[in-house]
Design brief:
Elements lengths: L2 H4 L41 H13 L4 E5 L7 H16 L3 E5 L7 H8 L3 E3 L6 H7 L5 H13 L3 E3 L2 E3 L5 H12 L7 E6 L16 H14 L4 E4 L8 H10 L3 E2 L4 E2 L2 E2 L3 H11 L10 H7 L1
Parallel strand pairs: 1-2, 2-3, 3-4, 5-6, 6-7, 7-8
Antiparallel strand pairs: 9-10
Helix pairs in contact: 2-3, 3-4, 7-8, 8-9
Length: 296
């Protein structure tokens, strides 16, 4: 394929143009707390016009899905109305839409579904036992509850987790088991490697052997054979060889772009060279929004 095609998704990969708009998003691969000594500043929700401009740029670069994230514990009713307008605008451009907004209250998932939302991202992060030692602002059951709300509203689910936080191999297998035991498997399963940020509680955690990432991806592929397993955050610290093993183990998607939410990501040129060396090609862009709705 040509470079234009390779700038499209590998499987259903996301072109994150929101990085240019400096959207504050909860980094699924970093466990930050309000008391962490990091240089993060609260930012307001960006305007509808800014979202449309970023989505238009994404279309030009060959994107097929556009994801919007906000660093909320959970959105308010007003927030949901604003996001619904953004979802409709993104869909009108012929893109699939995805949002990650935190925990949802009753009625929120239905509103998002009515606006045409295709995917909702809400990671379970780790096993239920290990979860309480990492996150104290919400319960593991809160995450499952939000996933059920999303699924019941008819929106597709994107849910995976983070490895390398000090958990055991058993915790990683329990995370995958939990996802595979949902009434329906998530259509998208992102597997993130922790990006250690100085000043955060996990900034000094011992690095995880990348072979454990390969094992986790292989297990996800076996237990959820129809799901898209995404090699997500942490690729900037991975060699091409490690990523090749991840593809062989069952990953079929990567996130393209220089920045993934708030963390570094390999640039498009580097990824294009890597995919060329592997003999891999991105999926062709779906051209018509009606076709997107059909396959979604």
């Amino acid at each position: 394929g040509n470079k234009k095609t390779k700038k499209a998704r590998l499987s259903e990969s996301l072109r994150e143009n929101l990085k240019k708009r400096k959207v504050q998003a909860r980094n699924r691969a970093v466990s930050n707390t309000m008391t962490s000594n990091v240089d993060l500043k609260k930012e307001p929700l960006i305007s509808l016009g800014e979202v449309v401009k970023a989505a238009e740029d994404a279309v030009k670069e060959g994107a097929t899905r556009f994801c919007m994230g906000a660093a909320w514990r959970g959105p308010t009713d007003k927030n949901i109305d604003q996001v619904c307008d953004m979802v409709e605008a993104v869909n009108d451009l012929g893109l699939e839409s995805c949002v990650t907004l935190g925990m949802l209250k009753e009625g929120h998932a239905e509103k998002l579904a009515k606006s045409g939302l295709n995917y909702y991202n809400h990671n379970i992060d780790t096993s239920e036992d290990f979860y309480k030692s990492i996150i104290t602002t919400r319960n593991f059951s809160d995450r499952i509850d939000t996933l059920e709300k999303v699924r019941n509203a008819g929106v597709k689910v994107c849910s995976g987790g983070i490895i390398g936080m000090g958990e055991t191999r058993y915790d990683r297998s329990e995370m995958v088991r939990t996802l595979s035991n949902l009434e329906e498997h998530p259509e998208s399963v992102p597997i993130n490697m922790l990006i250690r940020i100085p000043g955060t509680p996990l900034g000094d955690v011992e690095p995880l052997n990348h072979v454990e990432l390969v094992r986790t991806i292989a297990l996800a592929r076996i237990m959820m054979p129809l799901s898209t397993v995404r090699l997500s955050a942490g690729r900037a610290e991975m060699s091409d060889s490690t990523q090749a093993l991840c593809f062989l183990a069952g990953a079929s998607s990567i996130f393209l772009g220089d920045v993934l939410l708030t963390a570094d990501n390999p640039g498009t040129d580097k990824d294009n060279n890597m995919l060329d060396n592997f003999g891999l090609k991105g999926e062709a862009k779906i051209s018509f929004k009606d076709e997107i709705k059909i396959v979604s």
